[in-house]
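Homework help board

Subject: predicted structure for assignment chain

Our instructor gave us this sequence and asked us to write out the predicted structure in token form, then describe one feature. I got the tokens but I'm not sure how to describe them. Can anyone check?
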Amino acid sequence: EVQLVESGGGLVQTGGSLRLSCPTSGITFDDGALGWFRQAPGKEREGVSCIVNSDNSTYYVDSVKGRFTISKDNAKKTLYLQMNSLKPEDTAVYYCATGLLCYEYTYWGQGTQVTVSS
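My token output:
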């Protein structure tokens, strides 16, 4: 059974930081891709960041480059997203996900709410 469980969200002021964690089970960290996407109320889903398992290449949407860092711990089968210099426009539910390719995900978790106050 595939499980991805996000945690680490919360309420933070503009400029603050949060670290999202996503321990997983039932998926491989040997191939495919892992990533984070977010969805704000009334907005479309947006791919935030992705890491390719085979070579650890990372990708970020332009709006978070230089502020967010994706990483993973293969031994713990856990995905992370370090978010610094948070802005109100980062407010959304954040989901961790996995699939064969970045941003083409097959499985994702239940999400964790991130709220950035101005």
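Reply (TA_rk): Your tokens look well-formed. For the description, you could write something like this. The mean pLDDT is 97. That's the kind of observation they're looking for.
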